[in-house]
């Protein structure tokens, strides 16, 4: 169980984890975001702590309690998360991008509240930086880099494409077309992919899956 004593296989290692959604402001009172609860990222942080690691947790706005022994970095936007992640990545052995980063932000952040006008309005968005791709692309002090992929179809294909395109060491994929699991659930079903292998971790609590993922990372790190 979650309380069980684990062998300290990550002692001496620093793990940095991004978690939760990002929030992209439109004006002082409005934003674009998503339904990420942060539960998976926070569970990974707990698992890494249980295995003896030092943990940096970069978190978007969530409503759950952080693990007390993690070093917490609160961020809101993808740009803030990007800056925090790149700063911490070079001093990390392992980087896990579990956050649901908003792909786009407003092209034109308003400093005053946007006033209602005509019957239609158009928002122009610009692409956010790809945080995990930038971490995996570091030329010095690059950590072992693990991503997540939430897909509604062709899960294995899309996950392997992300593994290759973002130059990740590992990617954890889940099928979010299954309404019972994922985003706000306490459970998840994951398949983990790496360059020359894969492992189906099945449907479990996010706590149990997190221990499996951290164990898998630890063994790939050595191998
Ligand atoms: N990610 C990131 N920075 C972004 C977008 C995504 O670091 N700007 C990370 C996520 O934290 C996750 C991985 O990339 O670890 C995959 O995220 P996902 O949204 O599935 O992939 P995208 O590359 O954004 O592609 P798409 O949303 O079109 O499927
Ligand atoms: Ca995305």
UniProtKB/TrEMBL annotation:
Function: Catalyzes two sequential steps in the biosynthesis of coenzyme A. In the first step cysteine is conjugated to 4'-phosphopantothenate to form 4-phosphopantothenoylcysteine. In the second step the latter compound is decarboxylated to form 4'-phosphopantotheine. Catalyzes two steps in the biosynthesis of coenzyme A. In the first step cysteine is conjugated to 4'-phosphopantothenate to form 4-phosphopantothenoylcysteine, in the latter compound is decarboxylated to form 4'-phosphopantotheine.
All copies of domain DNA/pantothenate metabolism flavoprotein C-terminal, residue ranges: 10-218
Record-level Gene Ontology MF annotations: FMN binding; metal ion binding; phosphopantothenate--cysteine ligase activity; phosphopantothenoylcysteine decarboxylase activity
Signal peptide: none
Similarity section: In the N-terminal section; belongs to the HFCD (homo-oligomeric flavin containing Cys decarboxylase) superfamily.
Residues of the full protein shown: 179 to 401 of 401
Protein name: Coenzyme A biosynthesis bifunctional protein CoaBC
Reactions listed under catalytic activity: (R)-4'-phosphopantothenate + L-cysteine + CTP = N-[(R)-4-phosphopantothenoyl]-L-cysteine + CMP + diphosphate + H(+); N-[(R)-4-phosphopantothenoyl]-L-cysteine + H(+) = (R)-4'-phosphopantetheine + CO2
One CC-aspect GO term: phosphopantothenoylcysteine decarboxylase complex
UniProt EC number: 4.1.1.36, 6.3.2.5
Spans annotated as Phosphopantothenate--cysteine ligase: 15-223
Gene Ontology terms: biological process: coenzyme A biosynthetic process; pantothenate catabolic process
UniProt keyword annotations, A-Z: Decarboxylase, Flavoprotein, FMN, Ligase, Lyase, Magnesium, Metal-binding, Multifunctional enzyme
Pathway: Cofactor biosynthesis; coenzyme A biosynthesis; CoA from (R)-pantothenate: step 3/5; Cofactor biosynthesis; coenzyme A biosynthesis; CoA from (R)-pantothenate: step 2/5
Binding-site list for CTP: 97-99, 103, 113, 129-132, 148, 162, 166
Cofactor note as given: Binds 1 FMN per subunit.
Cofactor: Mg(2+); FMN
């Amino acid at each position: 169980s979650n309380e069980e004593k684990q062998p300290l296989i990550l002692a001496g290692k620093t793990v940095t984890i991004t978690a939760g959604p990002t929030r992209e402001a439109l004006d002082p009172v409005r934003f674009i975001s998503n339904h990420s609860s942060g539960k998976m990222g926070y569970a990974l942080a707990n698992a890494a702590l249980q295995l003896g690691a030092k943990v940096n947790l970069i978190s978007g706005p969530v409503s759950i309690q952080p693990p007390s022994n993690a070093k917490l970095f609160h961020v809101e936007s993808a740009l803030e998360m990007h800056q925090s992640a790149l700063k911490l990545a070079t001093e990390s052995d392992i980087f896990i991008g579990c956050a649901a980063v908003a792909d786009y932000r407003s092209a034109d952040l308003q400093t005053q509240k946007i006033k209602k006008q005509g019957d239609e309005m158009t928002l122009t968005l610009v692409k956010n930086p790809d945080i995990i791709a930038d971490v995996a692309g570091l030329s010095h002090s690059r950590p072992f880099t693990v991503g997540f992929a939430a897909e509604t179809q062709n899960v294995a294909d899309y996950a392997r494409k992300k593994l290759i395109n973002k130059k990740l060491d590992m990617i954890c994929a889940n099928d979010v077309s299954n309404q019972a699991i994922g985003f706000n659930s306490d459970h998840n079903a994951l398949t983990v992919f790496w360059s020359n292998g894969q492992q189906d971790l099945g449907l479990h609590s996010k706590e149990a899956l997190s221990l499996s993922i951290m164990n898998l990372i630890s063994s790939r790190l050595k191998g």
